[in-house]
Amino acid sequence: MAEKTYVIIGNGMAGLSAAQAIRERDRAGRVVLIGDEGEPYYYRASLSEWISGDLTDALVLGRMPAFYNALHIEQVTAHVARIESGVRQIHLDDGSAWNYDKLLIATGARANGYPVVGLDEILVFRTWADARHIKERLGCCGRALILGGGILGLELAGALHRMGIERIAIVQRSGFVGGPLLDADAAAWLTARYLAPDGIDVFVNDTVTRVEGQTAYLQSGQTWDFDILVQAVGITPVFPETPGLTVGRGIRIDARCRTNLSDVYAAGDCTETQVPGSDGAADRAWQTTRIWLDCARQGRIAGYNMAGADCTLPVQPFYNASVIYTALYSVIGEPHSADGESYVWQSGNGYRKIRIVEGKLAGALLLNARRGDMALFKAIGQPVGDFRAVLARPDFPWNDLTGQDWDYEYL
Ligand SMILES: Cc1cc2nc3c(=O)[nH]c(=O)nc-3n(C[C@H](O)[C@H](O)[C@H](O)COP(=O)(O)OP(=O)(O)OC[C@H]3O[C@@H](n4cnc5c(N)ncnc54)[C@H](O)[C@@H]3O)c2cc1C
Does ligand 1 have an atom closer than 6 angstroms to the CB of 13? Predict the structure, then answer.
């Protein structure tokens, strides 16, 4: 039988994970990894640490050339303009057409831009090129205005603060920063505990209405002088033009990471998946993929299936852990919703919120005090007795309650 040609569009976490997974099952087929950034694979989620100087270039680069050589993965720099799934072909920008047997679309997302009157150039934070641009433009001591106080905007503010930039402002349209990871109370805690002491100006319920020279005019009537204005106002999935492909906000994939087109798979930030609703399978909403771990997981499942396996994405509670501003966080399950009871514990730089619904653990938000986050992950959906506020304490023995030792499977 002829060897298969696997084509992967996008050399981010999803694409690379798929290439690795394909090689685990098929040592002979041709694996082609196409990316259009002109960079080898790098850790996108580590760009803030690169800006702050905590990580060198070598640590941001995820893989050395020896990795690709050892796995016989062909790397191609090109932009894929169109997919013709009926004839199993992709078309590059230069007009050439390539054939595939199995195709993965792992093209990620682009940063949104918000047009501001008087602003000539929209600067965003998505790629390593953006990060270099921000760092070069800011120099050692410029003034940075960040439009958008979500997770990415806060992460950038934290990186710039660690880099030594003294004048930083965040402008956030809604009433608090850090959503949807934080709720209003946790955001107030982060602002009081971190942002205010570090001298970060935070404008909430506000936006930049116009710019004149280096001055931003806010809706609230206030002004702020800046050297760079960076926008962190969300992302939009991107993918090549593909007739017949079913899309919502992203490419719709099933639990096997298949699209509706034969032999075309998709993974990562360009996709959306159906998540179970609170009342089970009947109430399933489509949700875009935005978490690094989910991109890796989808890439692996897609890769295995492209190479002949039959794997499905695990159904498990939400989990994400990283840095918000300069605080470490874990988000487990659904910590923020109006129903149920919530308990908060705070001490020093630690903040823990636990949410219980109908006597069962529904979610947790841990800021810095992250002890037992894996045990909490295992305990989602488990009855928690009548312990109430004690549940939020970092010394609560979750393993004793659930009777399980914690562990965390990658897949
Ligand atoms: C600054 C920053 C910090 C982050 N921090 C965290 C964090 O702490 N935790 C977390 O879970 N997530 C974090 N994320 C999100 C996480 O990095 C992404 O979810 C993940 O990297 C997306 O991987 P991906 O492979 O789906 O897409 P991408 O990494 O975007 O890779 C897709 C690649 O495909 C290329 N491409 C697109 N279209 C084409 C085409 N037509 N032809 C050829 N190539 C194409 C793109 O240029 C890109 O190189 C962060 C993101 C950013 C930007």
Answer: yes
| Nearest CA among 164, 165, 183, 186 for reference residue 174 | 183
Find the helix packing angle between 13-25 and 292-306, rounded to 10°: 30
Q: Which of 39, 44, 253 to mutate to test the pocket of ligand 1 (most atoms within 8 A of CB)?
A: 44
Which of 55, 89, 75, 81 lies closest to 12, judged by CA? Answer: 75
Cα 267–chain centre separation: 13
Query: Could you tell me the distance, in angstroms and rounded to a whole number, from the CA of residue 46 to the centre of ligand 1?
Result: 11
236-262: pLDDT as tens digits: 999 999 999 999 999 999 999 999 999
Q: What is the pLDDT of residue 385?
A: 84
Q: Give the model's confidence band at 2: pLDDT under 50 very low, under 70 low, under 90 confident, else very high.
A: confident
Decide: residue 410, CB within 10 A, 0-12 exposed, 13-18 middle, 19+ buried: exposed
- Which residues, in sequence order, are bridge partners of residue 228? 144
On whether the CB atoms of residues 265 and 258 are closer than 8 A, the answer is yes
Q: What's the average model confidence in pLDDT over 305-321?
A: 94
- This prediction's pTM: 0.94
Name all domains of the chain by residue range, CATH numbers in brackets.
5-110+236-306 (3.50.50.60), 113-233 (3.50.50.60), 319-402 (3.30.390.30)
Instruction: Tell whether omega for the bond before 180 is within 30 degrees of 0, i.e. cis.
Output: yes
251-276: average pLDDT = 95
Ligand 1 centre to CA of 45 (Å) is 8
Residue 150 Cβ < 6 Å to ligand 1:
no
CA 16–ligand 1 middle distance (angstroms): 11
